[in-house]
Structure formats: C-alpha cells, structure tokens
Amino acid sequence: MNSKLSTFFDRLDQHVGPLPLDVLRSAMNDLNITLDDLKGFVSYDGECYQRNRLHIGPGYHALALCWSPGQHSVIHNHEGSGCGFLVVNGTATETLYTVGDDGMLQQHETRTHQPGTVRVSFDADIHRMGNENVRDGLVTLHIYSPPLLEAETYELGSQRRGRWVDPITEKVSSSR
Predict the structure, then answer these.
(1) What is the per-residue pLDDT across 84-137, written as a single tens digit (0 to 9) for each?
(2) Distance between CA 140 and CA 64 in Å, rounded?
(3) Which of 60, 87, 89, 172 is most solvent-facing, going by the fewest CB within 10 Å?
(4) pTM for the structure as a whole
(5) How many domains does one find in the chain?
C-alpha cells in the first residue's frame, strides 16, 4: 500500500471506537491522493459500481468505490454509521432525499462533487451516489465508521423500504 494511504490509516487507527466526524473530516481533507495512489484497488464492473476494500481499522472500513459511467447506488441511509467520502477521480453526483409527513420519499437536492471534494455526515442522510458522466469512470474513497454492513433502502415516491447488505461482508459470512 502506498505511503500516503498507510499514514492516513495509521492516523485513523489511533481511534478504537467509531471515528469522531471532525477527526474523519480533518484526516480526509489532509489526504492528497490521486488515482495512482489507489493502484491495485481500482476495478470496475459493467453491472454495478464496484466496492473494493482498502483497509479494516478498529472502528471503520475503508473502501475504494469505482463507478462506471451511468452507475449509481440505491437510495439508502447509513443507519448508525458515519460516512466520509473523498472524490479521487471524476465527478460524483449525490442526490439527497427527505421523507415527507405522508411517509413518501421525496427528492430534496442534487449536488455534484469534483475531485478533492470531501463530505462527511452521520446516518441521518438519505442519499444516492453515482456517476452521471457518460464517458469516464469515477473513483471515490469512502470511510464508514462504524462499518456500514447493512442499510435501509428507499424508493422515490413510495413508502416502501428495503434492506441492503454489504456484498463484501455477505461473501465473507456465507463462506464460513
């Protein structure tokens, strides 16, 4: 692993429990990485964005998420987990949602995030991330603390809810 990432993870590994959001934000803002720094962790999938595990810390998971053109996550929350992401390459689109008084999911705001952008939040956000670009891939570094192993999913204009289970964790659990 590259020395910038090793130093970054050493800094985060000093915290035993969930990372305080201000610590996570500061560490991610100080991290100056490029696509080359993630060499060996960048891979794409034609079907779905790819979640590539970089590091498991005492209170967090670090992943490189690789998005082919047009790929998005499902609409989800972070149910008890903090999340920080850094846009490494490409332009990320984040759409935020709210639940109305009638229980229906409504689109609230759409933001674009350029390379170098850091965003940190706790579980209250309901959002969808993705790559709106039609030609180029997107790579984002995500830190989930505590690790995001499951989340609630949503459907726009509906009261319907579902569950998302981390596919990496699911593979590990099912192979035991």
Answers:
(1) 999 999 999 999 999 999 989 999 999 999 999 999 988 678 999 999 998 999
(2) 6
(3) 172
(4) 0.89
(5) 1
